[in-house]
Specification:
Shape: globular
Number of helices: 8
Distance between the termini: 18 Å
Helix content: 25-40%
Structural class: alpha+beta
Length: 301
């Protein structure tokens, strides 16, 4: 079945290859909007999925087929247009943004980060970290949480002053590429790297989140409800975005269509355009050497 399933509360997107088709407009909560609507059997399955989500404190279930929403249901006051915390779903933007940076000639996956973050050159471990190892979380950096506010073991940890700078100071604990260690430090270090690359480029943006906006969100017509930031203003790349279900699904559709998106404004409005080369996007989903269940900022099936 050519269907895109979005369960916001569980941060799960399950995709199969869709046929290109016109986008439908979203309907009300619980509504079905598509010329090729679901069968009675499908409706029953979708309803059971929504029931399951509710039982596990889910807030939203949205199912899309060939660019049209065919089922959506919301619980506890949530709606399709209310921005929902993505938590670690935010991480998926960074892998895609990194591949746009490769396409723009800003960086390569296997270059050493220390060629740009030159203060790492004197460190025996950090000097060897590649961009790929930041993105597949095998950099060897201490992976701990460096942005907030948050609660850990009952203690409220204040928001970081400068998460990017903290990440660059994080100790290199392991040999790069030898072990997968889940945590936010890799993402902040990548953000710092990207900003140095942007500073040396001719692109009109110089901040990491502005680059995400330029290459991902604006072309997709995707509205980000909020991005958390540290005290310096650096974005919480590993977990701070808030996006509504109907906006989040635009990103899912873009990935499902191998980097192609429907143009939402201008003379090309309504046409499909290849924004990111498919072979570059595919790099996000290649199992890493340190963890076959993880690619470049994406968990794999």
């Amino acid at each position: 079945m050519n269907t895109l399933l979005l369960i916001l509360s569980m941060m799960l997107m399950s995709w199969s290859k869709p046929a290109d088709g016109p986008s439908g407009s979203p309907g009300a909560s619980g509504g079905v909007v598509a010329a090729d609507g679901p069968s009675t059997e499908e409706r029953a399955r979708f309803a059971r999925a929504a029931d399951y989500s509710k039982q596990h404190v889910g807030h939203a279930v949205l199912i899309q087929r060939a660019g049209s929403i065919i089922f959506e249901r919301y619980e506890d006051g949530w709606t399709g247009d209310r921005a929902h915390p993505l938590a670690s779903g935010t991480k998926s933007f960074t892998g895609v943004a990194a591949m746009f940076a490769v396409q723009d000639g800003l960086l390569t996956l296997d270059e050493r980060v220390s060629d740009t973050i030159t203060e790492w050159k004197s460190d025996p471990k950090k000097s060897k970290i590649t961009v790929r190892q930041l993105l597949d979380l095998s950099s060897g950096l201490e992976p701990g949480d460096r942005v907030g506010p948050r609660v850990q073991r009952g203690e409220r940890i204040p928001r970081a002053e400068n998460a990017f700078a903290d990440a660059l100071k994080a100790p290199g604990e392991l040999e790069p590429g030898t072990r997968f260690r889940y945590g936010p430090t890799h993402f902040y270090a990548f953000g710092a790297l990207l900003e140095r690359k942007l500073a040396a480029s001719s692109l009109p943006v110089k901040k990491a989140w502005d680059y995400y906006e330029l290459r991902i969100f604006k072309p997709l017509g995707m509205e980000i409800g909020r991005i958390g930031r540290d005290r310096t203003g650096n974005p919480n790349l590993p977990g701070g975005a808030m996006v509504s279900a109907r906006q989040w699904v635009k990103f899912g559709e873009f990935v499902l269509r191998n980097g192609k998106a429907t143009i939402t404004s201008g003379p090309e409005k309504g046409s499909r355009k290849q924004l990111l080369e498919p072979e570059l996007l595919a790099e996000c989903f290649v199992p890493s050497k340190a963890n076959a269940a993880y690619g470049l900022t994406w968990w794999l099936r």
